Structure formats: structure tokens, C-alpha cells
Amino acid sequence: MIVITAPTSAIGRLLVNGLLGRGAPLRLVVRDAERLAPEVRERVEVVVGSHGDAEVIDRACRGAEAVFWLAPGDPAAPSPEAAYLDFTRPACAAFVRHGVRRVVGISALGRGTPMADRAGLVTASLAMDDLIAGSGVPYRAVVCPSFMHNLLHQAGAIREQGVISLMTDPDLRCPTVATRDIAATAARLLLDDSWQGAGEVACLGPEDLSPDDMARIVSEVLGSRVGYRQVRGTALKERLMGFGTSEPMAQAMVDMFAAKNLGLDNAEPRTAESTTPTTFRQWCEDVLRPAVRGG
Questions:
Q1: Does the reported pTM lie above 0.85?
Q2: Which residues pair with 69 in a beta bridge?
Q3: Fold classification of 2-149+176-204+263-276 (topology level)
Q4: pLDDT at residue number 295
């Protein structure tokens, strides 16, 4: 039995479909079962509730061989530590109590870099990895740069204003990754019973691109001019707090992007194993263009 947390998230939805396609028995932890597609609900076990709840995650882990762990990173949380570490503590106890044989989690690049201890959400995510690994359960953190998927939040601005806005320096070339490639990596690790211990598996995409490069590619795919506008950290923080993000979580987001501008995502060497297949152009054609044109 494989337990999937956050099964309706961008990664979780793809992971569930991929594992069901391979005939894997799944137990999904979800706050609202109605958010699952009917064809999924009829093929899985469902545990209703938050996977940060001790009773819920304990029930989900009974008899489980493997667990996919994705902390939701609650924007209203009182701190990054609460959002990642406090949320994960009940799960670590459940993993040990029920003898879970392997856990695969989603985390961030940056371990071992000078920026890792002041990178906001990344710092908290890496501490979460240490917490899970410290429980003694075999653990693999799938460590990622920024998701291509994040640009979907800007589909309206791309369509109506012809602009992409990020805090990233315009000429800084960094890796990005498609959620479908993250899901494929997680599925492979969940189904593989040969690994032990704790470690990281990087998903870096096939190329490094700057925001200016990305804006050019988006323009070519959409057939209309799209520019890039860099946002200051103070403006990003104010905007996030205007949407209900707590001050500590907003500051942690700003600190994360500041660390990325200092090279946080560029320290991991791209290897054959870490090079995932989906290019940014392919993702734009498959995902972003329909979202922009369908809005």
C-alpha cells in the first residue's frame, strides 16, 4: 500500500494517475474527497482529513509500505517552522510506529550552500528533510528548483498585460522543472524497494534559463509580445500579505528568492540522473498556452 498526501495538488494529482496506471494500491489523504475525480475515488482508499493531524496520518500509515510526503506550506502559518516542521512531526511518529519502509518527499535545492541557512522557505524545507531522516525511516527528498507550474498563477497578467513578474534577476540563468517530471521521479522512488537510508534526488530540468529567456520563449509560443518585469522584495512581501499570507511566511518567500538570486539553485550539478526531460518550451506549449488562451 502506498499512501499519497496532497493528492489534489499539482504534483499529487499527476503522481496518483501515474501510480494507478501501474496498478499500485493507493491510500489517499485528502481534506475533501469530492475534490478527487470520480474515476480515482473508485480505485483507491480514502482517508479524509489533514495529513498534519496526528490521528489522520496515523490511520493512513497503518499497513503502508511507502508514503509520499508533501507539506502544503500554509501561507497563513505563523512561521515557516510551523508550516514545515510542526506540520510534519506527527507523520514522523506514525512512520516509525507503523514500520513504513520508505518515504519520498518534495523539497528544495540548496543543501550545503552558504545561503541554505537564510533561504526562508527553503531553509524550513531542508530542516523538514532532516526531521524525517532523523526518524530512521528510509527517506528520499526529491529536491527541486522553481516549478514551471508557478507561472500559471500569472496567466491573467500574461494574457492581459503581456508581462511576467518575478523577483529573480532578469539575466540569471537557473534550472526550472515541470511538475510532471517531479511526479515521475517520485513514482519511480515509491515503487523501488531496493534503496535504504536517507538522501536526495535532484530534478533539474534539461536547461538553465533566465527570466528574459523565459519571456522570449513565452512570446514565441503565444505569438504575442511578453516582457519580464523584476519585482522588488518589499513589493512582493506587501503583495503576498495583501492576499492573506502571514508576515513571517511572506518574509520567508522573499528570503527564498533572495537566496536564489545569490545562486542557491545553481550549486547542484546537472547529471544524467538529475536531467528531467520536459523543456520550458514544451511545457509552455502543453500547459501555459491553453491556460492563457482559455482564461
A1: yes
A2: 105
A3: Rossmann fold (3.40.50)
A4: 61
